[in-house]
Amino acid sequence: MLRVLMILVPLGLSVYAFIDCLSTDEKEIRLLPKPLWAILVLIFPLVASLSWLIAGKDRQAARRGWIAPDDNPDFLNSLGDTPPKA
Hints:
Layout: H1 2-23, H2 34-43, H3 45-56, H4 59-65, H5 73-81
Helix pairs in contact: 1-2, 1-3, 2-3
């Protein structure tokens, strides 16, 4: 059982890091270009996956970019512009 975990955990980590790298916006990536991060995760799965999770993505930028709908003036204005349904 331990042998299986020693294979599945790094594999799962590298798959997660690869998908996270591909789905991350270019503005949130730090240190290296996005294609280079993806290639590194494929070539060096364990080391590059951990590096991606620690240093590759600006995780604070994703939190700053989201605004709740009731605090978003564009969303609130769009509610007033819709005609009533008959």
